[in-house]
Specification:
globular, 2 domains, D-Maltodextrin-Binding Protein, domain 2, five-stranded mixed beta sheet
């Protein structure tokens, strides 16, 4: 073999090795379904304490920490993008985000456009009223002849359930707001009679605003899960495996306990 043939052979071997390495790297990224190599992009609406909220310049909370733990198990860096709640599923479907987490409930309607992971938490929809409100229990909303103005955050399960159970039955008019805080401000200003929202942010809103209270009776109980684009089964399987492991070893419960007391 001549000197030139040896050089050509070495170059050919190096090129094949480079191609193989690149192929392996691309395959791993494709299997995980990441939009940006090495990054897990999470879409959320960071006005839903204690699941996600701004603390200074950082989004923190239950969902943020669980997503970070999942990303760590998958060898990825977590990126959280804040947006309106009703934009989250659209971002996942369009491929602008890998996952959606915002205290999101599994519903038949949502399953038409996304996959959902195994459930990691249970949420309760409650009713916020002013302290002198004539609404004293959830049953008052369903009384014959009742017609209340109800504030909700658009596209949340509070919106969906109140629309199906009350507005469609002629028992209420639903006023939809982009943020839960906007719905609560509408209640304070007496533009709505009550607000239906998840129990944990409801407690935060009531603690921050004098003269409001949460009714004792629940409006609905639901399971929270992670939204993933339909067709991206590799990412769903990877997230289910990582999340199930985090549930099994107690990591998820420790994160929840950090933000929500046992009481």
């Amino acid at each position: 073999m001549t000197k030139y043939m040896k050089i050509i052979a070495i170059i050919t071997t190096l090129l094949m090795l480079f191609a193989f390495t690149a192929s392996c790297g691309n395959k791993e990224t494709t299997n995980l379904g990441t939009i940006e190599p090495g990054v897990l992009i999470m879409a959320t609406s960071a006005d839903f304490p204690p699941y996600e909220f701004w603390e200074g310049s950082e989004i923190v909370g239950i969902d943020a920490e669980i997503a970070a733990a999942i990303a760590d198990k998958l060898g990825l860096k977590l990126q959280i993008d804040d947006m309106d709640f009703d934009s989250i599923l659209a971002a996942v479907v369009a491929g602008r985000a890998d996952i959606g987490m915002a205290g999101m409930t599994v519903t038949d309607e949502r399953l038409e456009s996304v996959y959902f992971s195994v459930s990691y938490a249970t949420g309760v929809q409650v009713i916020i009223v002013k302290e002198n409100s004539p609404i004293t229990s959830v049953d008052d909303l369903f009384e014959e002849g009742a017609h209340f103005n109800i504030g909700v955050q658009i596209s949340t399960t509070g919106d969906l359930y109140s629309t199906w159970d009350l507005e469609d039955e002629g028992l209420a008019t639903i006023h939809r707001y982009r943020r839960g805080t906007d719905a609560v401000q509408a209640l304070i200003a007496e533009r709505v009679d009550c607000v239906i929202i998840d129990n944990e942010p409801a407690k935060a809103f009531v603690n921050a605003n004098h003269g409001l209270k949460i009714l004792e009776t629940e409006f609905a109980v639901e399971d929270y899960a992670i939204a993933i684009r339909r067709g991206n089964s590799e990412l769903k399987d990877a997230i289910d495996e990582a999340l199930s492991a985090l549930i099994a070893d107690g990591s998820v419960q420790r994160i929840i306990d950090k933000y929500i007391s046992a009481n």
